[in-house]
Amino acid sequence: MPYIPAQKTRSLTPYDPVEGQYRVRLDANESFLLPTDEDRLKMASAAADVALNRYPDPLAVGLCRDFASLYEISPSYVTAGNGSDELISVIMSAFLQKGEKVLAVSPDFAMYRFYTSITETPCVTLKKREDLSIDVDALLKTANEEKVRLIIFSNPCNPTSLGLNADEVRKIITGTDALVVVDEAYMDFWDQSLIKEAHDYDNLILLRTASKALGLAALRVGFAVANKELTGILRAAKSPYNVNAVSQAMARVILQNRTYKTVYNEILLTSRDMLLEGLKRLETMGLIDKVYESRTNFAYIKLGDAKGVFDWLADRGVIVRRFGDDHLRITAGKQEENKEVLSAMEAYLKRTKGGTDK
Ligand SMILES: *Cc1c(COP(=O)(O)O)cnc(C)c1O
Question: Which of 19, 98, 187, 302 fits as disulfide partner to 193, beta carbons 3.0 to 4.6 Å?
Fold first, then answer.
């Protein structure tokens, strides 16, 4: 008899980021900024000092302490991961028994559903409202009726760029006895975080990442924030050396830089606002249907011909993300990149659609 891999592996496909060479990359919500030369030298020197023959600190104590200090919380509530992606996977496999249900919303970050298939935990999906906001009462009702054991969503949301305010999130956490995982990957761009109170709840794990506002996607560093009991479980359940020593050392340089986050955030948000303004102009001209309010470093738009625009941009070396036939997600880039994507879109849409220039 030949070996036959488990049924649940049949539908797996490797994560497929955009392939190919593009001049302008506005597809992955990365920061367009690099640390200063001074910080990069410090990072290089920190990396050079790593004892390469030794295993890394399994609990990444220094890294967690620097993260906690930057966000003004206690390091005893913090667990580091190999990106927050790894933490999502650890949470699903550690906190759920096979067959226990997960509740996700749609549209939302696709990785949530992906991990549930590996852990053999059925995923119930609640559709968002027509305007893509989350109906909190409907969410709680579904969680209760379906007896879900874990609720997960991103806030602010990737891909919709919309956010639930802190009170609405509190209502979800206190309205269920399921574990609630709030993925705050983009919360550096908004002010509705629950990071300072995460330890007050017995059923909340909050996720943060160094990949977006902190601009360190290459290092793969993410964090979970939760009360001591949940933190204890996470630390015990993760693989021991999950964050490599070079990443720990390099990320610490950025977390220790007291002005980095504020200064870089301002630049990223200025770029986001510029992109949004340009898109709203296209909306006013009747060339696109809707620009969603953005609490993130990207824009989400509704338009009739997403594929046409996507292909037109790609042909010109500009890559964005397409969601179905009528939505695009565009990461805010450098000023000239924003200008390029906006003028290319305008040219295409005027040609194919003939907007009413106001
Ligand atoms: C980008 C992103 C992440 C991934 O973060 P990593 O720390 O790089 O793994 C997690 N959640 C959401 C919603 C994201 O958009």
Answer: 187
> Which CATH number does the domain housing residue 202 bear?
3.40.640.10
pLDDT, tens digit (0-9, with 9 covering 90-100), for 126-158: 999 999 999 999 999 999 999 999 999 999 999
User: Per DSSP, what are the bridge partners of residue 180?
Assistant: 151, 204
Residues 62 and 150 both lie in one domain: yes
CA dihedral over 257, 41, 43, 85, signed as positive or negative? positive
Domain membership of residue 132 as a residue range = 37-257
CB within 8 A of 106, min separation 6: which ones?
A: 125, 126, 127, 128
Residue located nearest, by CA, to atom 2 of ligand 1: 185
Beta carbon of 116 within 6 Å of any ligand 1 atom: no
CA distance linking residue 297 with residue 269, whole number of Å: 7
Q: How many domains does the chain have?
A: 2
Torsion from C-alpha of 159, 165, 168, 172, nearest 10 degrees: 50
- Regarding whether 329 and 192 lie in a shared domain, the answer is no
Q: CA-to-CA distance for 204 and 194, rounded, in angstroms?
A: 10
Measured in angstroms, how far is the CA atom of residue 106 from the centroid of ligand 1? 16
In DSSP terms, which residues pair with 147 in a beta bridge? none
Tokens of 111: 């990785």
Q: Measured from the CA of 109, which atom of ligand 1 is nearest?
A: 13
pTM of the predicted model, to two decimals? Answer: 0.96
Q: Are 56 and 245 in contact (CB under 8 A)?
A: yes
What secondary structure letter does DSSP report for 34?
Answer: -
Q: Is the pLDDT assigned to residue 355 strictly greater than 70?
A: no
